[in-house]
């Protein structure tokens, strides 16, 4: 808004915008410093195979441990990390951390466990992505066939030509592919059929209203039956109640993830979870 100044000059100045810009700049500096200090690490959330009740693996979810002792969740730093390109460094740190940790759990005898990692759209567009992942697998010795790369449905639909060739290259390396937050984007059946996809993750916004809500129930059932037609597995994210789990079991959803089984945990807690976990009942 333009204000007439007392001595005849105009200031084009929106105080709310200034604070935002300023906050972003401060935050960007903090992020840059944090990336330099390796303050990002992986938390681990279990993924359960519904049929067998077994633990199928862990999803690595980024957390920022600030030197003031606070832990910052991804929603608060990933948007800016994407805008500034810092997501490339941060993402690599999280994946490296997770691959190393997973190898320790494999060495402890849990060598069937898979690892899922999230790739944002900027990471996915990065021409160096395949080399980075190949180098990380070499460096950490984590087996490619136990790695799943999760990309959101909207990132996958951004540039379908690029998506197709990148997914094919990942697949050729033996890596599995999951479409995250499925149902929130606009993918057509045609693309899903062409993309080499192993798993669709039903977005938690559809799961939260189950089993009571008729629309949510219809959407979840449609995703499950469509994926069966396409020979793709399905996972439900955000499963918080026994009823939601039972719904997924009845409709033959393959995997489930959510607070009902476990929240994202630091490595030590996740390790205990893994060694205690036997089988999901019901
Ligand atoms: P996402 O990959 O879809 O992960 C699922 C999110 O849902 C996680 O939030 C998880 O904590 C939360 N969640 C899991 N179970 C439940 C549940 O039962 N109820 C509810 N209400 N929430 C549940 P989080 O950890 O805050 O991560 C948010 C998003 O940030 C992730 O969504 C992912 O898109 C992104 N992200 C996380 N880590 C990374 C990373 O290392 N790299 C990139 N590029 N993105 C990441
Ligand atoms: Mg995910
Ligand atoms: Mg998701
Ligand atoms: Mg999400």
TrEMBL record:
Protein name (database record): Diguanylate cyclase (GGDEF) domain-containing protein
Originating organism: Desulfofustis glycolicus DSM 9705
Signal peptide: none
Residue span, EAL domain: 24-278
Span covered, complete protein: 298 to 579 of 579
Domain of life: Bacteria
């Amino acid at each position: 808004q333009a204000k007439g100044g007392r001595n005849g000059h105009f200031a084009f100045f929106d105080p709310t915008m200034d604070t935002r810009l300023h906050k972003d700049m401060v935050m960007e500096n903090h992020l840059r410093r944090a990336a330099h200090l390796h303050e990002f690490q992986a938390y681990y959330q279990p993924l359960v195979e519904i049929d067998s009740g077994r633990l199928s693996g862990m999803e690595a979810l980024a957390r920022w441990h600030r030197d003031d002792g606070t832990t910052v969740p991804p929603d608060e730093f990933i948007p800016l990390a994407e805008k500034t390109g810092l997501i490339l460094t941060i993402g690599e740190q999280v994946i490296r951390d997770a691959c190393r940790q997973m190898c320790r759990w494999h060495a402890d005898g849990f060598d069937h466990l898979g690892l899922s990692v999230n790739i944002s759209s900027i990471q996915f567009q990065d021409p160096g992505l395949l080399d980075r992942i190949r180098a990380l697998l070499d460096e950490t010795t984590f087996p490619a066939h136990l790695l799943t790369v999760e990309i959101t449905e909207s990132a996958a639909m951004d540039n379908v030509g690029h998506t197709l060739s990148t997914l094919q290259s990942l697949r050729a390396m033996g890596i599995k592919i999951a479409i995250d937050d499925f149902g929130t984007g606009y993918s057509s059946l045609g693309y899903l059929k062409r993309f080499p996809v192993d798993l669709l993750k039903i977005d938690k916004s559809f799961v939260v209203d189950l089993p009571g809500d008729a629309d949510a129930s219809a959407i979840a059932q449609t995703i499950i039956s469509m994926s069966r037609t396409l020979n793709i597995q399905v996972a439900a994210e955000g499963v918080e109640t026994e009823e939601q789990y039972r719904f997924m079991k009845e409709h033959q959803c393959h995997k489930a993830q959510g607070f009902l089984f476990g929240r994202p945990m630091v490595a030590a807690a996740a390790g205990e979870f893994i060694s205690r976990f036997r089988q999901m009942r019901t």
